[in-house]
Amino acid sequence: MSAPVVLLSRSGVLRLRDGHPWIFPDHIESTDCTEAGLVQLQGPAGRVRGWAVFNPRSRIPLRLVVRGGAAATEPGERWWQDRLDAAIAARAAELAPGETACRWVHAEADGLPGLVVDRYADIAVLQAGCEWADRLAPAVAEHLLAAHGMRGVLARHDGGFRRPEGLPEGVALLAGDVPHAVAWTSGGVQRSIDPWTGQKTGAYLDQRENQRLSPELLPGQRCLDAFCNDGGFALHLARAGRDVVALDGSEAALAQLSANAEANGVSARIEAFKVNVFDHLHQLAVQASAGKAGSDAVPGEGLFDGIVLDPPALVRRKADLNQALRGYKELNLRALSLLRVGGRLLTCSCSFHVGPEEFLHMLRGAAADAGRDVRIVSVRGGAPCHPRRLAFPESSYLKVVLLQVTGAW
């Protein structure tokens, strides 16, 4: 039985040629296919252009799986299994000894549309962002148990990312057993997560390398970890002998930070405060500018040698970009105002709609308004387990810039 065909418009063929794996409704000339599944892509003259998974009800109806002409072989029934195994093997080659957590599958960047799999020790947490990945999830879970020694696989389909695809939300056990406390290790730091309720799949693994290297990136003694979550940066800094003020608005995240700090023997080096981080940074900056101190001082008062600024995504839609940039600028202005001359700021944005040049332009404005001379030490991204495809800019969402204050006026 021949596969269903989707005929692309000329603009669709051009988009495919540019390399982006997503094809939108206005790139489709016609199709008789009404059901989700694997389809053959053809150009206006009937020339075969590749294969994609199709969902007529999605805002991204076509997600490419094989590019090429008539010689491109139709993917077999379990083509995904080879790609899954290859992605996992690539991570095994990249991980340092003793690392027990990473992203195993990074969706389209690994050729597996909409599928994300994060590993924490012997537990895997899966997210399916499109109908194809959702249908495949049970088979993926069974394969992870049978072929990769996982104890259990959990589906984290909460957080709203499935709504545009019309998929149901929730958290569900897919296979095996998944406890509420899972211990894992990164860079010698022991951490624990609750995969059922933790942020994203349990932790922010895209920052794994930046967290591990943070003592080298921020060599000063007194550090601030703003939006600290469960302490990914704070724990590494404290373990290296730094004194850390940690700020977050989540009581659950700070409770996990406290438990992690105790497990690593660094509780005495971390002061954690449950605050509105935006407001608290403003109060700290005002206090530092006025030179105030004493019993009425804001918790964590004083200047810092190093600051980590890793806020949640401030923009979900391109229409909100300007408002988000104002928010980022205000946060970075406050952080720069809290640094001693010679101090460093590791500032991050996980908002895809804020591009690298826009992020740097915002930082220039923040430095000027803060009255700081600033140099760029390095420009970084996510961990290697979050591969970035040149033709898929959505995979390069995380921007990390290391700045140093060289003067103030």
Write the topology of this structure:
Elements: E1 5-8, H1 10-18, E2 22-23, E3 28-31, E4 37-42, E5 48-54, E6 62-67, H2 79-94, E7 101-106, E8 115-120, E9 123-128, H3 131-148, E10 152-157, E11 170-176, E12 182-186, E13 189-193, H4 208-217, E14 222-226, H5 232-239, E15 243-248, H6 251-263, E16 270-274, H7 277-290, E17 304-309, H8 321-337, E18 339-349, H9 356-370, E19 372-380, E20 399-408
Parallel strand pairs: 1-4, 9-10, 14-15, 14-17, 15-16, 17-18
Antiparallel strand pairs: 1-3, 2-6, 4-5, 5-6, 7-8, 8-9, 10-11, 12-13, 18-20, 19-20
Helix pairs in contact: 4-5, 7-8, 8-9
Please summarize the sheet with the most strands: 7 strands, mixed
**Mass-distribution shape:** globular
Question: What is the first-to-last residue Cα distance?
Answer: 74 Å
Low-confidence stretches: none
Oligomer: single chain
Overall pLDDT score? 93
Number of helices: 9
Rg (CA only): 23 Å
Strand order of the largest sheet: 16-15-14-17-18-20-19
Strand content: 25-35%
- The assigned structural class equals alpha/beta
Helical proportion? Answer: 25-40%
| Number of E strands | 20
Helix/strand order = EHEEEEEHEEEHEEEEHEHEHEHEHEHEE
Q: Would you mind describing this structure in some detail?
A:
This protein is about 30% helix and about 30% strand. With about 400 residues, it is α/β, with parallel strands linked by helices. The strands form four sheets. A seven-stranded mixed β-sheet has the order 16-15-14-17-18-20-19, sandwiched between helices. Strand 7 and strand 8 (about 115-120) form a beta hairpin. The mean pLDDT is about 95.
